[in-house]
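Hello Y.,

Per our agreement to keep a running log of every chain we model this quarter, I'm adding this entry. I've kept the format consistent with earlier entries: sequence first, then predicted structure.
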Amino acid sequence: MAVSFTPPPTLASAPSAAAPAPSAFGPRVVTGLFGVLLAVLCAGLNEAVTKLSLADIRGGMGIGADEGAWLLAVYSAASVSAMAFSPWLATTFSLRRFTLCAIALFAVLGLLQPFAPNLHSLMLLRILQGLAAGALPPMLMSVALRFLPPGIKIYGLACYALTATFGPNLGTPLAGLWTEYVGWQWAFWQIIAPSLLAMACVAWGLPQDPLRLERFAQFDWRGVLLGLPALSCLVLGLSLGDRWGWFDSPLITALLGSGGLLLVLFMYNEWSEPVPFFQLRLLSRRNLAFALVTLAGVLVVLSGSGSLPSAYLAQIQGYRPAQTSPLMLLVALPQLLALPLTAALCNLRAVDCRWVLAMGLGLLVLSCLGSNGLTSAWIRDDFYPIYLLQVFGQPMAVLPLLMLSTNGMSPQEGPFASAWFNTVKGLAAVVATAVLELLGTWRRHFHSNHLVDSLGNAPQLDDRAAGLAQRIHEQAQVLTSADLYLVMAGIGVALICLIPFVPTRVYPPRAVA
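Predicted structure for the entry above:
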C-alpha cells in the first residue's frame, strides 16, 4: 500500500519545533480550499482572457502589436518564475498570510491596469500581477494535500486539476462576454469580485501558522539569482520566438541561450544546496519523472485543443470569441461533474490509475483524429460531437498524473514534489504554445508554397482571380490545423505507449489503521 503524505510546513529536510500541528478537517477547511481554488482559477482566467481580448485591449489603450506581445510574455515569465519560489515564501510567512497577500496584490493590480498612463507602467503592473498570480497554484496543491483527510485527498487533487481543464476552456466565453457586451476594461476587472470572495474564504477557512523568519538564515540566494532570470529568459524567448523568427533574431537567441545556461547553473546549485528549492534526487522516482514528462505532452494536446478551433473559426469563418464560446463551454461546464466522477473512480482501490490515464489519453487521441478531417466548410457545430470526447478525456488525462506524482512520498518530500509539478506545469504550458506556433508556421509556409506551385500554371489565374491569394491563405490554414491535430494525436499515442513500461502502480491514499 502506497503511503499518503501531508506536506510539512517547511522545505527544509529537518523538522522544526515551530511546525504547526495539523488542523482538524471541517467546513472551515473546505471553505479555505474553495477560496484558494477560486483565486487560482481567477489567475488562470486573467491570463487567458487578456490574451483572447488583446485586440480590443490594444485598440482601447493605443498599443501596437509588438507591445501587446510583450505584455503577454512578461506576464507569463513572471508567473512561471513565481511558481518556483512561492512554496518557500509561504512556509516562511505562513500559507494563510502569504496567500491572502498574493490575492490582494493580484486584485489591486487588475483594478489599476486599465488606468495605466503609458506602456511602461502597464508593463510593470503586468509583471507584478504575474508574480502574484504565479504564487497561487502551489498554494492550492499545498492546501489540498496538507489539510484534507487521506480518504478524500484525491478530491482535493481534482480541484487542482480544474485549473488545467475547466479554467482554460472558460477563457473564450468570458473574453467574448466582456469584449462584445461590456467593455475591454473588464478583461482586467473580472477578477476583482471573485478575488474578494476568495480572500474572505481563505481568511476564515485556513489556520494561521506562525512566522518563521529564521528560515532566511538558510535561504538559497544563489538559487534565486540563477533561477529567476533563467526561467524568465526562457519564457520570454519561447513566448516571443515565433513572432521574431526564433534564432534569426539576436534577441531570441540571447534570451534562450542565456536562459538555458543559467538553468544548467541553477540545477547544479540545487544539487549541491543543503536546503534547495528543487530536490533533484526526486527525479529518480519513476512515477514523478513520468508524470512530469507526460504532463508536458498533455499540455501540448490541451493547448492545441483549445486554441486550434478558436483560431480556425476566427480566421476561416470570421467568428468572434462570443460565437466560439458554446464550443468551449461544451468542454468546460461538464468538468464540474466529470472531475468528481474521475476522482471517485481513481479513489477505488481496485482501479489502477495508470489505465484511467491511458483511457483519458485515448479519448484525446480520438478527438484529435476526428478533428484531423476538418475542411474549410466546417462550422462550430461540426466540432461538437468530436469535442464531447474531451469532456472525460481531459480530467482522465490530468488527475492520474497528480496521483502518480504525489503518492508514495514521505512528508519531507511532499513540498518538493509540489514545486516540481507546478513549475513544470507553468513552463510546459509556455513550451506547448511555442511548439504549436513553430509547427503551425512551418506547415503553413509549406502548404502555401505547395498550393502556389500547384496553381502556378493553371489557366484560371487571370484578372478574375483577385481573391485567389486569400483562398490560398485560408486553405493553407485549414491544412495546417489538420496537421497540428495529427501531431497532437501522435503525442497522445506516444504517451500511451510509455504507460506499460515506466510508471508503477499507486493506490489511493487511505488513513493508516
